[in-house]
Amino acid sequence: MKKLPFLTLTALFLASGAAIAADWDGRRPRDPAIHARQQDLQQRVNQGIRSGELTAREAWDLRRERNRIRRHEQQYKSDGVLTWEERKDLRRYLNQYRRDIYAQKHDFERRPDSW
């Protein structure tokens, strides 16, 4: 009689562990952290446009880079799986994008109407 609840709890524990392992095997189809970083970086570009820190050409170049990263992300997700290596690539691309945004915002080129 006492073994039934114990066996039931043990089975639930093992099943939940298998579900967690399946989710964290590096094959998740999406990564909320990457999406959040993309949103944050886009806000930085928009702020640079509003403040005049980015010229029209710089903003265009940064948008083109953002679209290139999105195309990579779509290509990686096309098979329904986003592997650890693909997430690593996306993080590397986003790190470079962040550095490019910083460089463009701090290069002392300003929009003529923002002086």
Task: Count the domains.
Answer: 1
Structural class: mainly alpha
- Given the structure, what is the number of helices? 4
Q: Which spans have pLDDT < 50 for at least 5 consecutive residues? A: none
Overall geometry: elongated
Widest sheet, order of strands = 1-2
Q: Compute the separation of the termini in Å.
A: 82 Å
Helix and strand pattern = HEHHEH
Main sheet overview: 2 strands, antiparallel
- Average of per-residue pLDDT values: 84
Helix percent reads over 70%
Strand content: under 5%
Count of β-strands: 2
* Overall radius of gyration: 22 Å
Can you put this structure into words, describing what you see?
This protein has 115 residues and is mainly α. The protein has one domain (30-114). 74% of the residues lie in helices and 3% in strands. The protein contains four helices and two strands, in the order H-E-H-H-E-H. It has helices at residues 3-23, 32-51, 56-77, 84-105; strands at 27-28, 82-83. It has a two-stranded antiparallel sheet with strand order 1-2. Helix 2 (32-51) packs antiparallel against helix 3 (56-77), helix 2 packs parallel to helix 4 and helix 3 runs antiparallel to helix 4 (84-105). It is elongated, with a radius of gyration of 22 Å. The termini are far apart. The mean pLDDT is 84.
